[in-house]
Design a protein that fits this description.
By secondary structure, the protein is α+β, with helices and mostly antiparallel strands. The chain has a five-stranded antiparallel sheet. Strands 1, 2, 3 and 4 form a four-stranded mixed sheet that branches. The chain has a three-stranded mixed sheet with strand order 10-11-12, sandwiched between helices.
Length: 351
């Protein structure tokens, strides 16, 4: 094993971030696995790798016995003393092996085990890296967009993962080479390596964007109580603070609307309604139906969380929203079933 071998391991450590100690352990195991074939698989082969001296020692440890029972594991005293003069019966003797004598097949076996070890190390590192970022926002570079499935391959740090078409914002065009923000939904260990679930449609993406953009949310002054989202179209977010001197909605909007505008830009123009959370269900539901005005909220069944919202006649379609979107998002945001009726009562009974 030449100096170039140790230089190659050092290069792997630098390029892939895999500790040299881990690689040496896998390489030693590979050499042992290969060499054991010459001894019928017996566990008598050892390998010591000294990085400092840049030396690899491979040897077979045999027992010194009076009478040989197994030629693979035993030596007579005479045979042992020919290797080491101080050898004694009942002790062991280490017999050095030359790695260059293993042959082509053994070398190929070692290479396979080393490659597998490197893959395992990379998968392990990938798993740990993404686990540390689970439920967090990360930036990825778009490497490729599959023209058939629409799935996008993203480079995140030193790793690659796939953003499925189903987790992309409807109508959004992904450009190869561009950088985008994604939310890590979950990280699981699979048989073929870590399974990383990333999304652009998850409500957690909006939550993390507000945490990044609004210092009062990051430091805990303002709390995000809930988020409901229909990606690419509209999001409602409920915020709350115990600090009477802080306007939670105004802080999230920012001076001249700059904070929320920055988030809207990242989301490709998605509309965002920021509403003030309240422990009073009537107040909360009323706020959640923005941008519509609400005349009154009647609690129909508190245990079933059902209520009726009365809105001005000219605000009925606004309260319900296009294809029911506004009231649907308000229901998800508040957790209450909301029945909408106009102030005149003309459409009473209809949602």
């Amino acid at each position: 094993m030449s100096k170039e071998f140790f230089e190659a391991v050092s290069l792997l450590e630098q390029e892939k971030g895999i500790p040299a100690e881990y690689l040496y352990e896998k390489i030693a195991n590979a050499i042992i696995t290969a060499a054991k074939h010459d001894y019928n698989g017996k566990d008598i082969v050892h390998c010591d790798i000294d990085e400092e001296k840049q030396k690899i020692k491979v040897y077979v440890r045999k027992n010194v016995v009076e009478e040989i029972e197994d030629p693979d594991t035993d030596l007579t005293l005479e045979q042992a003393q020919a290797i080491r003069k101080s050898a004694k019966i009942g002790k062991t003797v280490d017999i050095p092996l030359k790695t260059k004598d293993f042959g082509r097949i053994v070398a190929q076996t070692a290479k396979q085990v080393i490659r597998q070890g490197i893959r395992e190390a990379e998968r392990g590192q990938m798993l740990q890296e993404f686990k540390s970022k689970n439920q967090e926002l990360v930036t990825g570079k778009i490497e490729r967009v599959d023209p058939v499935t629409g799935n996008a391959t993203l480079e995140i740090g030193k790793n690659r993962t796939v953003l499925p078409k189903s987790e992309q914002v409807p109508g959004e065009t992904l450009v190869e080479g561009a950088s985008i923000k994604v939310f890590i939904v979950d990280v699981k260990e699979g048989g073929k390596g870590p399974k990383i679930m990333i999304s652009r449609t998850h409500p957690g993406l909006v939550r993390r964007l507000f945490e990044q953009e609004v210092p009062e949310i990051y430091d805990g002054t303002i709390e995000i109580k809930s988020v409901s989202r229909e990606a690419g179209s509209r999001t409602k977010i409920a915020v709350f603070t115990k600090d009477e001197d802080v306007d939670p909605v105004g802080a999230c909007i920012g001076p001249r609307g700059q904070r929320v505008s920055n988030i809207v830009e990242v989301l490709g123009g998605e509309k965002i309604d920021i509403v003030k959370y309240s422990d009073d269900p009537a107040e909360f539901v009323s706020a959640a139906l923005a941008p519509s005005d609400v005349c009154s909220i009647e609690i129909v069944d508190e245990s079933a969380k059902t209520c009726r919202a009365t809105v001005p006649d000219d605000q009925l379609s606004l309260a319900i929203g296009n294809k029911g979107q506004n009231v649907r998002l308000a229901v998800r945001l508040t957790g209450w079933n909301i029945d909408i009726k106009p102030e005149s009562g003309f459409f009473e009974g209809q949602e």
